[in-house]
Prior knowledge:
The complex is a heterodimer of chains A (294) and B (441). Helices cover 74% and strands 3% of the residues of chain A.
Amino acid sequence: xxxxxxxxxxxxxxxxxxxxxxxxxxxxxxxxxxxxxxxxxxxxxxxxxxxxxxxxxxxxxxxxxxxxxxxxxxxxxxxxxxxxxxxxxxxxxxxxxxxxxxxxxxxxxxxxxxxxxxxxxxxxxxxxxxxxxxxxxxxxxxxxxxxxxxxxxxxxxxxxxxxxxxxxxxxxxxxxxxxxxxxxxxxxxxxxxxxxxxxxxxxxxxxxxxxxxxxxxxxxxxxxxxxxxxxxxxxxxxxxxxxxxxxxxxxxxxxxxxxxxxxxxxxxxxxxxxxxxxxxxxxxxxxxxxxxxx
Amino acid sequence: xxxxxxxxxxxxxxxxxxxxxxxxxxxxxxxxxxxxxxxxxxxxxxxxxxxxxxxxxxxxxxxxxxxxxxxxxxxxxxxxxxxxxxxxxxxxxxxxxxxxxxxxxxxxxxxxxxxxxxxxxxxxxxxxxxxxxxxxxxxxxxxxxxxxxxxxxxxxxxxxxxxxxxxxxxxxxxxxxxxxxxxxxxxxxxxxxxxxxxxxxxxxxxxxxxxxxxxxxxxxxxxxxxxxxxxxxxxxxxxxxxxxxxxxxxxxxxxxxxxxxxxxxxxxxxxxxxxxxxxxxxxxxxxxxxxxxxxxxxxxxxxxxxxxxxxxxxxxxxxxxxxxxxxxxxxxxxxxxxxxxxxxxxxxxxxxxxxxxxxxxxxxxxxxxxxxxxxxxxxxxxxxxxxxxxxxxxxxxxxxxxxxxxxxxxxxxxxxxxxxxxxxxxxxxxxxxxxxxxxxx
Lengths: 294, 441
């Protein structure tokens, strides 16, 4: 039983890491209807700038992290001006394709600045093991879970208690109605891409600390996709709960099913879990049911 | 009327200049030995690829700058970016093979690209040099006469690794009842040494636990939770890219003693340990060359390459594992050309046939590695018609948190075992591909 709990808790904590990446996708989709393929590249971009500034220029983290947040806001502004504004009212697939371009551009720019070498990103989050009886948990994972919890609370407060939050919700609810009452869509996009950039900074620090900062970090997107399928593209709580389900599900499958069917199954099994839920709820656990009148 | 005449004269003059320039350029190219370099400086595996590409290029620059080339024949190196992708690798091969005076040898730098390039290289008569990667069974020379596994293979290195483990345990007999985990990249690469491991498990009575890790390996908690439960005596790690530091970090955080983890050839690079931080201190790995930069060749590199501003990179990768691999791969290629020239005529570029001849009997004794300034860095080799690997020497290195330290001398693999495996596997391949093995008698 102790082993089962250890695997389960480990999976849940891994799932929270997936949720952190998924959150960035959800924020942008909710406000603009764009599936931002570049989210994982934003995570890598942010991590490379923090690690690069620290490693190559000797900039301490307490400056490098806020500087990167400012940079991400600049990136958001640039994306809105150069990519999104000219594509207003285009088909969603056109917007999606443009984010693929952003994906490669961000990676390329980061590599021009910092090269493709792997870098260590250790901002001081302890990684000591914690024993509870025979069960072992990671301090790093628990602290990460705490960071994600704080981030989600801040996002909820921003969304519910601030004027801009209400504006974002209005845009998410109905673009045209929001525009008709004077909300500037362009400003909203800059704000939402900036928030997504801040989430990418947090994800970059956490994932960069776990993996080292290197180009392959963009693969964490493949961990976020089943979370999005399961949780829906428009729900922040959905991203968190789906992350927990996917993390726990793939860990338990790897341990208990893996030895029977060959091991190394966690990657694809996450998609099986997501698809199984989609049979029941095609819009995802917390996604909005889309009803189109003919 | 004068204007058209002047124009004509100008065109004729320009044509003459271009024509003469082309003739001189063509002559210069004909006197150079062309060397295509398939590199991956970009893409997800770039952290491993950049160091190799830099070392490879810097060695060529050293030969050109210090020696004026090989007996006066300069080497013209041309890089092609594969991003570690098979299709781009094949495209690079096809695009570069007839450049200059024609490629005579290629190092694909990827097992996938190697598999794709082998049939083409056989058609073109180009030597394929795969250091420790690619088809292990190509070490059996009669089947693939143009493919060389110098200086070792996955299989050889695994037998030597097990020899090291047995030595640490006080002898083979003490492996009885031990638990050895093989945590591997769930791909053909990761499964390569399983045959060797299963053979030894049966022969010496240890329990082999095969733990697949799905690539790319960014999340491995569940696998290492299971390994922790096994309480292994030793762990063999066959990861690639981000899988390696993640495995080391996760293993250490689970309380697994990383000094009893031994990485395979491609879990032995700096990018396997640096991102893992302090967790990686004590981690060991098998490799086929000396670590670090404490070799005379680095003095020459500094004098003729770095200080002249001719280094391929910014110099911060000197002495890394990937860089050293680039150096010695280029070293083997240059030595083969040198031997080809000695046999077929010095002072001119050698042909594909002459290069193949040289590789088929490439002999670099320890004394020669010392003359090259690479004593202890480059393992000596002796290739024969049957043995396209050489002695297969490897060593074990250990990460101290800053650099790799060599903890053994050269280790010899179990040649009797691996040669039998090479032969059986290569003959199966020959049958599938309709290749008639040549006679080495």
